[in-house]
């Protein structure tokens, strides 16, 4: 072949060669077809080009000799699994979906599969694989580690999504959007993408209730009020506001606030509105932000600081800061006098060029927003939504957990770390009297930090990750789990020194599991711990399992509180650094994010279910009940759940 041929040309030639090959020899020529298909599918444009050949796949023998040869025998539930496998099978599965799309669109007639059946098949595939249509940010996705095969699958689904109506997945999408928004994450890009994609279905034959919910979410991220919907250009909307009466502006503020409170989402128009009130009608801000009495007191006590915060950080491109500001004021953060100069310092602090580069997205530059403005907005968000901090697809749950803890109970320390990180590109912590500087440490837990994070995480996680990893290295030869010493040093004085772990350090076996369970009950369960209540979040280690209960890996979460749910059952309410905290861990263990007494951003499980997935926790040895009082039946139930899930990977004694 001529070296001047494009990959598309080469694929066409390879397909022709395969077509004329004898049946017994086709496997020899399929390899080149699959290799070129892999190359083409590495870009969006290549996927389109590949689809042009789809009507020829069957005749050429692309699927000859494999389970995909008969399109009428294919099962939608198996598609996602094949696409997620490394190797040639994921490529062949992709080609099979493109063939089915050609049938559905009528560019290829298959005598065994009618157009309607092909379309139904693909709609079912989309409905069963929302994680490929909208890639999740769960622990399972992070542990799986992405890879070319997964990126190819996601690229294929974007292509299919652009071709199909989505009506088969409309109800599922609405359910997914509602489940994610109720968790109130700081980073909402994925939710916005889902809403924007889902609204393509509004004109399809979907139920009125589903259509209404989609429209409501669409309004929440675009034009929640009648006035903003009438003046969709933000400049025109801003000009119109100048002509509105104070009574009209009050009504506008209340509608914006209602939409924000119900969804956790903020439209660019809302940011424009808040900016305008900040300059002309600051007394209406409390309505626009839907503040509680505590929030109003915070606003009234610090009008100049809040005015400047809004001026520098609230813009259409950073509209989500408005929600964070509302929650920060309601938390009463600004009533802590020592924090005020630390916050104001960030307005003009010199930011290192490399840090500034990480903070500044193209849309921020285009909008004329400064790096300091992005930073201040990020600080507002984490202080308002400490349980909305996510690790993204990074193996940095320890760092995200630290930011959440400090945002709740160590704000002064957090602000100091932020200032040092942006000004000096370095922070330091002390481990047992020895200082550790992040800029002197090479490498952390994460090989690289994906930047799909909030601004504070972008600034601090690279430093925290390296320091945490360095601390763990210093405990390697101690013969016990290093978290016993590292957690109190890394997180701070809020962490109790008592520590329990189920793994024997010498053998790697699960040891004294029943005693571990009894100790957790005696120190944490209100019916067994002499009535001691949790004061600070407790960092614990858990096993993450998939829907089948199979072990995926280790994860770090924080127990926020333990309390009875509305049905009178004791539950563990915890912070999960995953951006999606509603997960299926198998054995009927479904983490809940609403409906069971959760506060904003919390996940929860019944006490015994959470215990069955835990492998380490901290406790105060001076605040515990009698271990012998814990019911044997509870211990046995938990041990059964453990043994039949993650425990299958361990030896027990």
Tell me what the structure shows:
The protein has a six-stranded antiparallel β-sheet with strand order 3-8-4-5-6-7, sandwiched between helices. The chain has a two-stranded antiparallel sheet with strand order 1-2. The mean pLDDT is 92. Strand 1 (428-431) and strand 2 form a beta hairpin. The termini are far apart. Helix content is 52%, strand content 8%. The protein is of the alpha+beta class and 653 residues long. The protein is globular, with a radius of gyration of 27 Å. The protein has helices at residues 7-20, 26-40, 44-52, 57-60, 79-83, 88-105, 115-128, 130-133, 139-144, 148-163, 170-181, 189-198, 208-221, 226-230, 234-241, 246-263, 268-280, 285-288, 293-301, 303-313, 321-331, 339-345, 353-359, 362-366, 371-384, 397-409, 411-424, 455-473, 483-491, 513-524, 607-612, 632-643; strands spanning 428-431, 434-437, 498-501, 538-545, 551-564, 570-575, 603-606, 614-619.
């Amino acid at each position: 072949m001529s070296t001047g041929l494009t990959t598309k040309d080469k694929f066409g030639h390879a397909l022709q060669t395969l077509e004329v090959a004898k049946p017994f020899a086709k496997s020899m020529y399929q390899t080149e077809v699959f290799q070129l298909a892999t190359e083409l599918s590495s870009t969006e444009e290549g996927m389109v080009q590949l689809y042009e050949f789809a009507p020829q796949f069957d005749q050429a023998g692309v699927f000859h000799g494999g389970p995909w040869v008969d399109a009428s025998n294919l099962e939608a539930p198996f598609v996602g699994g094949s696409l997620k496998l490394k190797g040639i099978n994921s490529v062949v599965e992709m080609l099979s979906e493109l063939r089915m799309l050609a049938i559905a669109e009528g560019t290829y007639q298959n005598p065994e599969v009618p157009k309607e059946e092909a379309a139904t098949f693909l709609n079912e595939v989309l409905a069963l694989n929302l994680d490929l249509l909208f890639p999740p940010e769960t622990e399972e996705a992070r542990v799986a580690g992405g890879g070319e095969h997964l990126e190819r699958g996601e690229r294929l689904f974007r292509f299919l999504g652009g071709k199909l109506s989505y009506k088969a997945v409309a109800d599922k999408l609405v359910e997914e959007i509602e489940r994610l928004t109720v968790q109130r994450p700081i980073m909402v890009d994925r939710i916005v993408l889902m809403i924007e994609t889902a609204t393509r279905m509004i004109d399809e034959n979907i139920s009125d209730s589903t259509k209404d919910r989609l429209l409501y979410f669409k309004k929440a991220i675009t034009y929640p009020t009648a006035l903003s919907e009438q003046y969709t250009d933000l400049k025109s909307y801003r000009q119109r506001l100048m002509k509105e009466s104070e009574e009209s502006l009050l009504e506008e503020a209340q509608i914006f606030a209602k939409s924000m409170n119900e969804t956790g989402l903020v439209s660019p128009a809302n940011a424009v509105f808040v900016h305008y009130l900040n300059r002309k009608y600051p007394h209406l801000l409390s309505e626009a932000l839907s503040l509680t009495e505590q929030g109003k007191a915070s606003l009234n006590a610090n009008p100049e600081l809040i005015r400047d915060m809004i001026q520098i950080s609230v813009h259409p491109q950073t509209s989500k800061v408005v929600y964070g500001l509302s929650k920060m004021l309601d938390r009463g953060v600004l009533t802590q006098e020592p924090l005020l100069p630390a916050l104001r310092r960030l307005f003009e602090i010199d930011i290192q060029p490399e840090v500034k580069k990480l903070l500044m997205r193209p849309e921020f530059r285009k909008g004329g927003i400064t790096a300091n403005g992005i930073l201040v907005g990020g600080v507002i968000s984490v202080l308002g939504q400490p349980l909305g901090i996510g690790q993204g697809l990074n193996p940095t749950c320890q760092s995200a957990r630290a930011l959440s803890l400090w945002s709740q109970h160590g704000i002064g320390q957090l602000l100091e770390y932020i200032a040092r990180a942006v000004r000096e590109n370095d922070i330091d912590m002390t481990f047992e009297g020895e200082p550790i500087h992040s800029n002197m440490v090479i490498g952390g837990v994460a090989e690289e930090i994906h930047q799909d994070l909030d601004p504070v995480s972008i600034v601090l996680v690279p430093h925290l990750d390296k320091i945490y990893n360095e601390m763990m290295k210093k405990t390697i030869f101690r013969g016990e789990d290093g978290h016993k010493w590292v957690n109190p040093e890394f997180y701070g004085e809020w962490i109790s020194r008592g520590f329990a772990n189920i793994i024997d350090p010498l053998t790697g076996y699960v040891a004294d599991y029943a005693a571990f369970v009894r100790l957790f009950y005696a120190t944490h369960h209100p019916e067994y711990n002499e009535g001691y209540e949790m004061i600070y979040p407790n960092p614990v280690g858990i096993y993450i399992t998939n829907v089948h209960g199979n072990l995926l890996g280790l994860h770090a979460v924080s127990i926020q509180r333990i309390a009875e749910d509305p049905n009178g059952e004791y539950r563990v309410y915890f912070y999960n650094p995953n951006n999606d905290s509603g997960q299926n861990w198998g054995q009927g263990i479904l983490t809940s994010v609403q409906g069971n007494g959760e506060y904003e951003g919390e996940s929860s499980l019944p006490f015994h279910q959470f215990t069955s997935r835990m492998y380490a926790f901290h406790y105060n040895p001076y605040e515990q009940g009698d271990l012998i009082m814990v019911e044997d039946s509870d211990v046995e139930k938990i041990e059964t759940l453990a043994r039949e899930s993650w425990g299958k990977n361990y030896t027990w004694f």
